[in-house]
Design brief:
The protein is built from two helices and three strands. By secondary structure, it is α+β, with helices and mostly antiparallel strands. It has one domain (3-75).
Length: 80
């Protein structure tokens, strides 16, 4: 997000994703974020179905999903 976008969205907050016991979150727009375990060559890691990369813990994967969700929502807003 650029400085201009941050200024334009000042005071606007995106509701946090609500995760269920199966480590999935459904957005109001119908997008499903799912955190799942991956078994790498040398370590166990976690991934998110709509993101590239892996994370050391499920909580870090959820935080990345939340950041992605917020960026998608805020990028669709305008002040004009």
């Amino acid at each position: 997000m650029t400085d201009k976008q941050e200024q334009d969205t000042a005071g606007v907050r995106v509701k946090p994703l609500e995760w269920d016991e199966y480590v999935t979150a459904l957005t109001p727009l119908g997008t499903r974020y799912a955190v799942y375990r991956e078994h790498g060559r040398d370590r166990e890691c976690w991934a998110v179905n709509v993101l590239d990369g892996s994370f050391d813990t499920p909580k870090l994967a959820q935080a990345a999903a939340q950041a992605d969700y917020e960026q998608r929502i805020l990028s669709a807003l305008t002040t004009s």
